[in-house]
Design a protein that fits this description.
The chain has nine helices and eleven strands. It is of the alpha/beta class and about 270 residues long. The strands form two sheets. The chain has a six-stranded mixed beta sheet with strand order 7-6-8-5-9-10. It has a five-stranded mixed beta sheet with strand order 2-1-3-11-4, sandwiched between helices. Helix 6 links the parallel strand 6 and strand 7.
């Protein structure tokens, strides 16, 4: 069990204790549905399944995971917003689904007040990673290659409006490069295609891409600045980081890029009572 999972278990344990104490004694009487706004295997899914396992144990009830991809997570939250406010339909969200989506998709059928926040269950950070045979060894070489080949590089993400999409956009705009952003129904299928060489790279979160980097299935390029663990910093010491933690590997063009809150928080949500 890694340190991220241990910390997540601790958060969920406290959360479920509070929920159990606050709810009626006969809750829950039936399974709870936890909606994940992306495909199985991605960062949100990994976190949600860890949360579900611990919640199920603490509450003595089954937590059913329902993966609903599309529209950067907005399709899933539309489903969640229609749920009865009885505690049996909850969802997990991030900066994309909880904030950016309302600007990117102004015609959404729900508003922020359609949900009541339950708990922050995880903190993570974003990583840009490339297929292992991409002809650039570091971010400086990548930017130079991209500027010499405008529009020819494609980076995958979890859909327009997702936090991974925001990471891609922030990085591309700060670097001043022209690349094609390819939306998927979740981070996992995007990473699979990057590993297979169908796309050049992905914008992802540590929980889902770090293992692939460690196994050298893809190569890390840039790490988001929300890295609070010394062990994690050491693990990715050779990668560029962005402000305010920019290091010697960070090109000047990225010195002012701040993505700290793009991928940082994962929250549980439910229709308000």
């Amino acid at each position: 069990m890694n340190s991220f999972t241990k910390r997540l278990f601790a958060v969920v344990a406290v959360f479920t204790f509070v929920v159990t104490a606050a709810c009626a004694q006969d809750y829950p009487k039936r399974p709870i549905t936890l909606i994940v706004p992306f495909a199985a295997g991605g960062n949100s899914d990994v976190i949600a399944r860890t949360v579900a396992e611990q919640m199920g144990t603490a509450l003595g009830q089954t937590i059913v995971i329902e993966n609903i991809g599309g529209a950067g997570g907005s399709t899933a939250l539309t489903r969640a917003a229609r749920g009865e406010p009885d505690g049996y339909t909850i969802a997990i969200g991030n900066a994309g689904t909880n904030a950016a989506a309302y600007t990117i998709y102004p015609m959404l059928t729900f508003k922020p007040d359609a949900f009541a926040p339950i708990a922050v269950v995880a903190k993570t950070f974003g990583i840009v990673a490339l297929r292992k045979d991409f002809p650039a060894a570091n971010v400086r070489e990548f930017i130079a290659y991209a500027k010499s080949n405008p529009g020819k590089i494609n980076l995958g993400h979890a859909g327009v409006g997702s936090s991974n999409f925001l990471i891609c956009k922030s990085f591309v705009q700060a670097a001043g490069i022209d690349v094609t952003l390819v939306g998927y129904r979740g981070a996992a299928p995007a990473l699979t295609d990057a590993i297979g060489g169908q796309i050049d790279g992905v914008c992802d979160a540590a929980a889902s891409v770090s293992q692939a980097i460690g196994d050298k299935l893809v190569k890390g390029l840039v790490v988001g600045s929300a890295v609070e663990s010394d062990a994690v910093k050491k693990r990715f010491a050779d990668l560029s980081t962005v402000a305010p933690d920019a290091n010697e590997h960070t090109p000047e063009v990225l010195q002012q890029l701040v993505t700290r809150d793009v991928e940082k928080y994962r929250k549980l949500l439910a229709p308000p009572q």
